[in-house]
Amino acid sequence: MIKTFLIPITIAAIALLGVACQQTSESNANANANTGETATTTTTTAGPDNSDITTTTDKNGVKTETRTFRNNPRVSKVVVATNNGTRTVKVYSPSGEERELKSEPEKA
Known about the structure:
Order of helices and strands: HEEEEEE
Oligomer: single chain
Distance between the termini: 61 Å
Mean pLDDT: 75
């Protein structure tokens, strides 16, 4: 008896949550369009070494390239941010440890 009562309530709650999230997303998109701000542009491509390369450029011109490795035992991702010609390179290990690459970041 309790199962037949809880299953429809659970399904209805999940459906309402999905609708609420969708409406929030649409309202944020409309708000950005109305303010005249340029949206960030994002592209993702597959790398030759079993990785994904995501490039994002925000409205201020900051370009961020994130390369996520799938099966590398030493590196999980590399993030290169370029702002006004200055490059910042951060390397992340599979355990989540973060290190900033300071010498020769152009070779990363």
